[in-house]
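Subject: Sanity check before I submit

Could someone independently write out the structure tokens for this chain? I want to compare against mine line by line before I put it in a report. The sequence has 184 residues.
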Amino acid sequence: MTVSPDLDRRFREAAATLGLIDIGFDVVDTPIGELLVAASDRGLAAISFETDDDRVERLARIAGPRVLRSPRSVDTARRELDEYFDGRRRTFDLTLDLRALPPFTVSVLDQLARVPYGETTTYGELARRVGHPRSARAVGTVMNRNRIPIVLPCHRVVGSTGELTGYAGGLDVKQTLLELEGAR
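---
Independent answer below. Compare away.
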């Protein structure tokens, strides 16, 4: 049985209105490619460079199994991302859903969020800021697993020599984001 696009849209809108979605997501077109953006009732839960079905399944582990493509769920995040890529936004005003993350990860992400637009920091400096000066590698692991890149700007973290190091979207995307911000 095929469902008409109108019926599909109304179903998704009704589910959102009735609070029947744990995580709503959509695929957002950006200058760096498509991003899967997901939000719960607590806030922005994920931005992913991967838009495949496996990523959608992983969203269920954040807030619950009711994951549905719901463009309306990510309207605010989409608008702020558009403004960022247009050069009209330097900070994000989004509430974040960081549930199920360990305390160390949350403390690192909190410090990461304080790295200003157009500036970079190092893994070692972030480790010092969270009170664990010898934990640069652990900070790197947090950056690698950051489920809300761009908004939590792990692209602003570079190696101790200033070299670009790993990034989920690829080093070319990291370079593009830093150039957009004037940091490179």
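---
OP: Matches mine. For the report I'm noting this point. The longest strand covers residues 23-30.
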